[in-house]
Amino acid sequence: MKKKICLFIFIAIAAILLLFDGAVKVYGWGKTWMGYDLEMIVQEARLKVGPFRIKPVLLLNNIGYDSNVYYGTATEPIKDYTITAGPGFTIYLPLKKKIIFQVYESPQYVYYFETKRERTWNNYFNGQVHFVFNRLVFSFGRGFSDARERWNTEIDIRPRRKEDSFQGSVLWQPSRKTSFSLSYRRANYDYENIHYEIFNVRDRLNREENYVNFTGLYQLSYRVKFFLDVEYGFFDFLNPSNFRDSKSYTIYGGFEFSPFGIVRGRINLGYKYFNPLDPQRKDYRGIAGNTNVSIKMLKFLDLRASYRRDVQFSLWYNNAYFIENIYGIGTSLYLFKNIRLDYDYSLGRNKYPVADIQGLNQDGGILLKRQDDYKIHSVGIYFRLKKNIGIGAIASKWIRDSNLDWEDDERVFIGLNLTYNF
Question: How many domains does the chain have?
Fold first, then answer.
């Protein structure tokens, strides 16, 4: 019922905006920043086959030695050598600068030399169509992924997850600097039927997520946009006995920076009210955000910083969720024209709202609220192969310090990576 209401609101407002646009005329790629961005993206896809524009990539990641495949300490850490490789294709089909079809497909094979269970094909697909008018852009898309990955910092194993998503949006830009958008996204998540510690992943995490976002944007300069975003989310878990059904209300604000400027990325911070529908579960009210910014200080020096804080659904006993906090800083130093040094440091903390585990302190036994602290150090040296492509040797160390002693652990990875942003 809620999904139908969201779709009805989306269609109704889209129709109203279409009336505002009057007798629609098309001027090139329209008079919106999104139309301009689509034009730039299509032009950058230099491979042309008839009317199609194709942007192919070769993905080579995590080629090397992993000291702890499953991250955890329940058994002796499993060590192995691994490689992830596969092609990726983004295909564009523009029709008279009014309609743009966009498809991304990437099959990737993950190979472990000894750990046969982790050998797998992952696949990622996303298809979209954009209708570009004078001051309106309508976009609709479907996404499918089928992958075995470590989906968040709580789960140490890699359960397979299938995601089936739909998204739709309408952008209205009444003036050169001001624009508004309304978007709807639905995603179904189907996890592998597997146990992590004593918890069944499928029973606890299979769900449908629905989001409605209303966003206002103001162009401060050619390379900077200010935005204000209001989001409603509804989360419906498929297991009837699951107590994680919930809804959320969030308001975000921040800045978007052009990828071609000195400052690049996005500052996104806000306030979230997360409300589990089970009255016995604790609400969350507080900061949420996802920020990632890089600054080109000098010709040979880049600095970057990131911050992410949000609610993540939890497997852990009677916790419906945990709060994930991750801070990051990094730098890239270009020693010569074709050599780059990277260093990144991340500091994270997961906090759980409900005490579940019996622990000990100076006063005797107490129930503990789990808290995990993370540190990640990563260094790399990259060599330029082409204009924006480099291959590099990397080394990283991941450390977890939990107030549950048996959850303490560390992992080292040494290997190679291919990068497309040299």
Answer: 1
